[in-house]
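Q: Could you write out the predicted structure for this multi-component system? I'm mainly interested in how the pieces pack against one another.
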Amino acid sequence: KAGVTQTPRYLIKTRGQQVTLSCSPISGHRSVSWYQQTPGQGLQFLFEYFSETQRNKGNFPGRFSGRQFSNSRSEMNVSTLELGDSALYLCASSLTAGTDTQYFGPGTRLTVL
Amino acid sequence: GENVEQHPSTLSVQEGDSAVIKCTYSDSASNYFPWYKQELGKGPQLIIDIRSNVGEKKDQRIAVTLNKTAKHFSLHITETQPEDSAVYFCAARAGGSQGNLIFGKGTKLSVKP
């Protein structure tokens, strides 16, 4: 069974631009969570989607948004990029909402110049 | 909200020795505690997890113990090998079964041949 896939793997943007990252969960998994990983703050929860609905959200500004499609694939968008948004963005999938086991993808490395 | 403290931040051991990483959590409602291993350039990989109704769990050279009263849990790796070198993260599921994962800051384990 294929694991969690994320595209693109690397991305370079400039301040003020916006970016969209994509995540395909493990086949059969319906819940997708997004995390931001930085050296200073570590792994921080962004949001979780299940059945195309956001069911949980972390403490991030409204510039960070996401959505989930009917096939469980998810996208996250960051608008008006800031230098501090440079990070590894990780997607994790789980069978259902509230299911404990989360499996992570390889991440998307975003660099904001 | 939930807070997870992880120690030590770096750990260096000789091949064949044991390694122990400790985490404490603050939310007594947390009931699920996974451990992830992250190698350079990769996403976190689940290596073992434990639920609050179990005190200890083993999987070959890896074991996790949980002390609910003291609100701490530990990862034990025996007979360490160079391929165990990586960053290890502990996590706790916040707010009972519906919450997101809260991660510790990570421990960089180096196993010297």
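A: Regarding packing and overall arrangement: The two ends of chain A are 37 Å apart (CA to CA).
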